TrEMBL record:
It comes from Saccharothrix longispora. InterPro entries: DHFR-like_dom_sf, RibDG_C, Riboflavin_Biosynth_HTPR. SUPFAM superfamilies: Dihydrofolate reductase-like (SSF53597). It holds the Pfam family RibD_C. This is Dihydrofolate reductase. Residues 4-179 form the Bacterial bifunctional deaminase-reductase C-terminal domain.
């Protein structure tokens, strides 16, 4: 069975974007970015992969799931992750390129995707979608940036059940960014 991984940048106070959905306060230079390029190239937008000369086969993910606001980031391309199967959760979005599928039931979609063979499924945002999918999230990879936003879009937004995760690994970079991986603990 495939895993759903919430791989996301967050501030020290738990926000994945500012109140307008912007993420310009996060660090985009430094040794932590080298780690992203080398270890998580599947999570780079197709334009960035092309600019960096990355055309290797996907190694961790073959599918990306995102909320409408994440998909419709201002200035973003209409097909941001052409190297992945792309799903956008929305009840309002109607026009997308043929390689971007709009779905309205994220839990049913993830459960069906998990039953298929393949690589992992990457949840790349947003906070409300993450809260909805929390029962299905198998792994969290948090890229914690050394900033405090004070307000914005939280890592998980809305009502959601309690879930426990066990720390699997932590890496600290010279930039001050810390990657921490958590695996879902099974309830006994």
């Amino acid at each position: 069975m495939r895993n759903l991984t919430y791989f996301i940048a967050t501030s020290l106070d738990g926000f994945i974007a500012d109140p307008t959905g912007g993420y310009g306060d996060f660090l985009f230079e430094g040794d932590h970015m080298t780690a992203v390029f080398e270890e998580y190239p599947d999570t780079l937008p197709s334009q960035a992969r092309h600019a960096l000369g990355i055309d290797a086969p996907n190694k961790d993910f073959d599918t990306v799931l995102m909320g409408r606001a994440t998909y419709q980031v201002p200035g973003g391309p209409p097909s941001p992750y052409r190297h992945l199967r792309q799903y956008v959760v929305s009840s309002r979005l109607s026009t997308t390129p043929p390689d971007v599928q709009v779905v309205s039931d994220p839990l049913a979609t993830v459960r069906a995707l998990k039953a298929e063979p393949g690589l992992g499924i990457w949840l790349c945002g947003g906070g409300r979608l993450a809260a909805t999918l929390l029962p299905e999230i198998d792994e969290l990879i948090l890229k914690v940036h050394p900033i405090v936003l004070g307000k914005g879009i939280p890592l998980f937004a809305g009502d959601f059940p309690t879930a426990r995760f066990a720390k699997a690994s932590t890496r600290t970079f010279d930039t001050g960014v810390v990657f921490t991986t958590y695996a879902k603990e099974e309830v006994t």
